[in-house]
């Protein structure tokens, strides 16, 4: 039987639901899921999808409108079959749409900035983000600078929280992994499906994976997104605003008497018209 042969050879690692979709997408074989399940189970084939025992916990209701809250997280996993690599991601709380994915060699500010860039470019600026208390998002230092106090801040900024503040996005810390249920479930689904997609499409390196995922997100959202109750709350980036000047690291330095400052062991001097620039004392 062709279906059994394809499952055991070409698509051996896929679960039954994913296999049914791939049959229609790649082999032009349109069968219902119950039919595929019956054929495979009749030959003793079992779906590899793991059934985890879930403990009962408080369920948090979805937000009504897309863009009201976006969950951010990273999942270290053997996405390319070798060593563990963290996949950075953002998922909309109301619709379960993936808003951005980016694979790096380690969990970094750069990875989350890239996810934010994809989100803003494809959907818009959300009202709030929801994440764990990783130091990329929230500073462990409670001490504020004089500038922070004058601006009315109640906690020290990280580079990411500073960027979100410039965009007008509120950041909400999650108290536990269970509180981030939707993004945690996303990782389980991607671990089950994305690895197979990488393999079927010959994806073997980080650069190719990131390029592939930008297209895969659309496919995933068509399959798994839910219809939200309300209209999107995402905001468009204002005209004339360069996102590169926001999603970046900004470091403060003091000028000395010679209109110069040091940064990472190098010395820089402000010059205007071939002369040392005058600065306000």
UniProtKB/TrEMBL annotation:
InterPro entries (alphabetical): Integrase_cat-core, ISNCY_transpos, RNaseH-like_sf, RNaseH_sf
User: Which biological process annotations from GO are given for this protein?
Assistant: DNA integration
Q: Which residues form the Integrase catalytic domain?
A: 62-240
Give the GO molecular function terms: nucleic acid binding
Question: Under which name does UniProt file this protein?
Answer: Integrase catalytic domain-containing protein
Write down the species: marine sediment metagenome
């Amino acid at each position: 039987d062709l279906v059994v042969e394809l499952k055991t050879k070409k698509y051996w690692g896929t679960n039954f639901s994913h296999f049914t979709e791939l049959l229609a997408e790649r082999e032009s074989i349109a069968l219902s899921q119950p039919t595929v399940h019956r054929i495979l189970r009749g030959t003793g084939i079992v779906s590899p999808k793991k059934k985890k025992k879930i403990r009962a916990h408080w369920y948090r209701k979805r937000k009504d409108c897309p863009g009201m809250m976006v969950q951010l997280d990273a999942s270290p996993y053997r996405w390319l079959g070798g060593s563990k690599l963290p996949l950075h991601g953002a998922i909309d709380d109301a619709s379960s749409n993936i808003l951005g994915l980016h694979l790096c060699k380690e969990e970094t500010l750069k990875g989350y900035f890239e996810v934010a860039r994809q989100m803003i470019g494809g959907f818009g600026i959300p009202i709030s983000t929801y994440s764990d208390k990783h130091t990329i998002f929230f500073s462990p230092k409670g001490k504020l600078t004089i500038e922070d106090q004058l601006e009315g801040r109640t906690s020290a900024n990280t580079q990411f929280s500073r960027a979100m503040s410039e965009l007008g996005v509120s950041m909400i810390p999650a108290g536990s992994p269970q509180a981030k249920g939707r993004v945690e479930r996303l990782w389980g689904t991607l671990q089950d499906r994305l690895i197979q997609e990488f393999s079927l499409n010959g994806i073997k390196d980080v650069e190719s994976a990131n390029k592939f995922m930008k297209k895969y997100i659309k496919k995933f959202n068509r399959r798994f997104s839910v219809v939200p109750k309300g209209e999107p709350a995402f905001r468009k980036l204002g005209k004339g605003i360069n996102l590169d000047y926001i999603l970046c690291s900004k470091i403060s330095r003091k000028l000395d008497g010679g209109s110069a400052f040091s940064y990472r062991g190098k010395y820089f001097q402000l010059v205007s018209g071939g002369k040392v620039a005058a600065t306000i004392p």
